[in-house]
Structure formats: C-alpha cells, structure tokens
Automatic annotation (TrEMBL):
<feature type="transmembrane region" description="Helical">
    <location>
        <begin position="281"/>
        <end position="300"/>
    </location>
</feature>
<keyword id="KW-0812">Transmembrane</keyword>
<keyword id="KW-0813">Transport</keyword>
<keyword id="KW-1003">Cell membrane</keyword>
<feature type="transmembrane region" description="Helical">
    <location>
        <begin position="165"/>
        <end position="185"/>
    </location>
</feature>
<feature type="transmembrane region" description="Helical">
    <location>
        <begin position="24"/>
        <end position="57"/>
    </location>
</feature>
<comment type="similarity">
    <text>Belongs to the autoinducer-2 exporter (AI-2E) (TC 2.A.86) family.</text>
</comment>
<feature type="transmembrane region" description="Helical">
    <location>
        <begin position="69"/>
        <end position="95"/>
    </location>
</feature>
<feature type="transmembrane region" description="Helical">
    <location>
        <begin position="312"/>
        <end position="343"/>
    </location>
</feature>
<dbReference type="InterPro" id="IPR002549">
    <property type="entry name" value="AI-2E-like"/>
</dbReference>
<feature type="transmembrane region" description="Helical">
    <location>
        <begin position="222"/>
        <end position="241"/>
    </location>
</feature>
<keyword id="KW-1133">Transmembrane helix</keyword>
<protein>
    <submittedName>
        <fullName>AI-2E family transporter</fullName>
    </submittedName>
</protein>
<keyword id="KW-0472">Membrane</keyword>
<dbReference type="GO" id="GO:0005886">
    <property type="term" value="C:plasma membrane"/>
</dbReference>
<dbReference type="Pfam" id="PF01594">
    <property type="entry name" value="AI-2E_transport"/>
</dbReference>
<feature type="transmembrane region" description="Helical">
    <location>
        <begin position="248"/>
        <end position="275"/>
    </location>
</feature>
Amino acid sequence: MNNELQNNSSSEGKVINLSIKLLLIFILVSWCAMIVFPFVTLVLWAVILAVTIYPLYYKLLNLLKGKNAIASSVVTIILLGILLVPTIFMISAIVSEAGELKTAIVNKTLVVPPPNPKVAEWPLVGKEIYKVWASLSTNLESALVTYHDQILEVGQRIVGAMRSVFSNIMMFAFSIIIAGVFLAYSDESEKSTLAFARKLVGNKGNEFKDLVVQTIRNVSKGILGVAFIQFVIMGLCFMLAGVPLAGLWAILVFLIALIQLPGAIVAIPVIIYIYSVKEPVPATIWSVIILICGLSDNVLKPLLMGKGAPVPMIVIFLGAIGGFMLSGFIGLFTGAVVLSLGYKLAGIWVNYDNSSPVIKSE
C-alpha cells in the first residue's frame, strides 16, 4: 500500500515537474516570438531575395575565386542601386513638380488647357470628367472652391499612398542588406536549413528544402518577372505613343500584374485616350500593340512559373493567389511555398505503404 502511494506521489511529482518545464519552455518560446515578430516580414523578404538571386551570386563568387564577402557586397550594392537610384529621381521629380504647381497656384499663373470634346464620349465616366475638366479650364479659382473637398480627399489618399510606397522601399532596402549577409554565409545557412528540414521530415529533408527553394524562384520568375517585363514593354509603348504620365501608367501596370490581374485593364483607358487624340489609323496600330503587350502575361506566366517546377504549375499559382489574398504581397511567396509543401505531403500520405514507410528518421 505504501509502495503504491509512493509510486503515485512520484508519478504526480514527475507530471508536475514536466508541466512546469513545458510551461517555462512555452513562455520562453512565446517571448522570443514576440521579440522577433516585428522583424518577420523583413527577414522573410531577405530570405526570398537571397534564394532568388543566389544563382547569380554563385556565378559572381566563382569569378571572384570564392571571396564571399566581396561577392555579397557587390550584389548588395547593385540591388540597393537598382532600388534607391530610381527612388531618389522619383522623389526629386515629385518635389520639383509639387513646388512648381504650388508656385503657379499662388501666382495665379496655372493654366488648365480645355478638354477635347471627344473626352465626353468616353464610356461611363466621360461626361463627368469633361464637366470637371472644362470647369477647371474656364474658371480655375471657382472650380477649386467647388471641388475643394474632393480635391483634398484625393490629395490625402495620394500622400498616404506615397508614404506607404516609401516605407516599403525602405523596408526592401534593409531586406537587401540582410539578404547580402545571408549570401555571405550561404553555406552555413544551407546546412542549418537542411538540418532543420531533416528534423521535420527525416530523409526527405533535402527534397523538401529543394522544393521550397525552387518554388520561391518560380514565383519570382512567374510573378515578379512577368510584372517587370510588362512594366518595361508597356511603359515604352506609353512613352512612344505620347501618353501623358506614361511612367505612372507603367507603375500601375506593374502593381496590377503583381495582384495577378491582366495588364489589359490598364490598357483600356489608355487606348480610349489614344483614340480621343490621334487619327484612327495610328490610334488603331498603337491600340493593337498595347493590347498585345497587356495580354502577354497569359503566355509568359506559364512558361516562367512552370519551368522546372517540382509541383504542378496550378498548385504554385493557386498558392500565390490565395496567399496574396490572405497575407498581402508577401503571401505570393508564402502561399505558394505552403501549398506546394502541402501538395507534396499529401502525395507522400496517399502513396504511404505501412510495410515500407516513406519517411524515416535518421
């Protein structure tokens, strides 16, 4: 009887001791997670950038005879230049144009040209745009008073959007620097990642690590690559066709392509404008060219996203779209990676043989 009581007491003591240890571990892990949480997005983008550009970094590393620090520094500087140089020019242009606009309004020298009568023929919004435009061109001061609230609201939205864009640019700049560090220690990073993957799925760790890497690169090529290609070719078309604010329209094409909508959405209002200011023949030629460029993603995306993919292209595509809807821009990558891993695990489970397990611990 005493032995049973002692055994029960000993068991209860072990349970309490284990519970306290687990609770302390949970508190420690939760605390660490809360400390790291503000940097999660930053680090995720750094990982995505490092994985995406590693093939180029590896070629440069071979050219520099294995000098990791120099190779990673060169890649980091190039990426920062690609990101920050256009940003500086854009900020300079915006500040300059805003200053000129303010001076013109204060000195009452701002002149708004009258609208083309064809503007009123634009579907849905043509008449309203023509009315506001005509009002601004005939009596600017009166129109500014009449539409003061609307102009203020639009201005606040534009300022808010610009703040968001610039904060994201700064976040990407820091992510590029962190990605450079990851590249400099790429061998150690790969070993750590592989060890973690093997802890999770045993001897399938290497396969799952390769799956994550390939999925990230495919999404980069299939989504970011296509968006950038459309941004360049449609931006050139807008400039050559004489479309006002061609750069802003091109940026809109890039953003539309990122959320997986066709660039033709942006092409439609541009085509309407071209027909309103050009003769029918050149307007038709430019419209066909711009429309073809706007629909080019239907050809480019399957080619780039599906090339060398370890899972069907539709899995990556659905993961990217669902991830974007759930988590925003970062979800394009996390969604594709998670769904690809889920697809692979489902395949392992379906083909699992009790007599010969697929996943074995090492």
